[in-house]
């Protein structure tokens, strides 16, 4: 007979699988198991590392896993991605699991959060993940990124001005936002423009979600 803990995990797995099907994503059983392993690590270490205000496991599936997974199709052509202000790994860890050939870098200023991300990388054997500790303004990498992303990080203009030096010439920003931030768009620094606004529908989440694509203005 299944224990209540096993039954809980089965319920979480079912909600995740349903959401993945609704999003029409092609994720193997192994990838889905990795997502649940990541969720288990988030739950286990949240009290120590203060990674997320969401504490209910079922809510974590919708508000974190499916919320990040809904953005995956926008990243399909990217090979080198930076997640700025990654916190507990959203969307970076989810992208790394969903797109194993993508190199995913994550940066956060808070050492205990990047210690958690390093632990996730090691326990889930996510060899496509690189973790940086520090302010993105001070990050310097040999290769630039074709996509720089963030979720719940900063005003769009700060996001772009603090990390623009890391974006490849033909690269783009993908900001995960709630309602379309009209004021933030108006404050974008000169030389940058919103190229696309993509509404997202997150299974089980009754809230607005949008992806904002930002690129360089042609000179
Ligand atoms: C609200 S959290 C969002 C975490 C995660 N992206 C999510 O959606 O759950 C914002 C994160 O940005 C980090 N942060 C703030 N300023 C930063 C900077 N200049 N460079 C890198 N990370 C920064 C904070 O430490 C924090 O973990």
Automatic annotation (TrEMBL):
**Where is this protein localized, as stated in its record?**
Cytoplasm
Enzyme class comes to: transferase
Q: Name one GO molecular function term.
A: rRNA (guanine-N7-)-methyltransferase activity
Cite the entry's keywords alphabetically. Answer: Cytoplasm, Methyltransferase, rRNA processing, S-adenosyl-L-methionine, Transferase
Reaction equations catalysed: guanosine(527) in 16S rRNA + S-adenosyl-L-methionine = N(7)-methylguanosine(527) in 16S rRNA + S-adenosyl-L-homocysteine
**InterPro entries annotated for this entry?**
rRNA_ssu_MeTfrase_G, SAM-dependent_MTases_sf
Which residues are involved in binding S-adenosyl-L-methionine? 85, 90, 136-137, 151
Gene Ontology CC annotations of this record: cytosol
Which EC number applies?
2.1.1.170
NCBIfam families in UniProt: rsmG_gidB (TIGR00138)
Q: Supply the PANTHER family for this chain.
A: S-ADENOSYL-L-METHIONINE-DEPENDENT METHYLTRANSFERASES SUPERFAMILY PROTEIN
The similarity annotation says: Belongs to the methyltransferase superfamily. RNA methyltransferase RsmG family.
Q: What does this protein do?
A: Specifically methylates the N7 position of guanine in position 527 of 16S rRNA.
Q: What is this protein called?
A: Ribosomal RNA small subunit methyltransferase G
Q: Which organism is it from?
A: Noviherbaspirillum humi
């Amino acid at each position: 007979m299944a224990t209540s803990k096993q039954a809980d995990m089965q319920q979480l797995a079912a909600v995740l699988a349903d959401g993945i099907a609704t999003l029409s994503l092609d994720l193997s059983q192994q990838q889905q198991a990795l997502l649940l392993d990541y969720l288990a690590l988030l739950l286990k270490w949240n009290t120590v590392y203060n990674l997320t205000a969401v504490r209910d496991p079922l809510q974590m599936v919708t508000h974190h896993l499916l919320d990040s997974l809904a953005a995956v199709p926008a990243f399909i052509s990217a090979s080198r991605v930076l997640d700025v202000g990654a916190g507990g790994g959203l969307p970076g860890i989810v992208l790394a699991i969903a797109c194993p050939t993508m190199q995913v870098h994550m940066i956060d200023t808070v050492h205990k959060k990047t210690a958690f991300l390093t632990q996730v990388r090691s326990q889930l054997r996510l060899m496509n993940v690189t973790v940086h500790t520090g302010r993105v303004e001070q990050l310097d990498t040999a290769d630039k990124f074709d996509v720089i992303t963030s979720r719940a990080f900063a005003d769009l203009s700060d996001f772009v001005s603090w990390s623009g030096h890391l974006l490849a010439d033909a690269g783009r920003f993908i900001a995960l936002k709630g309602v379309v931030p009209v004021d933030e768009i108006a404050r974008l620094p000169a030389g940058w423009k919103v190229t696309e606004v993509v509404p997202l529908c997150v299974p089980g989440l009754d809230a607005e979600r949008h992806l904002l694509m930002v690129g360089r203005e042609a000179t």
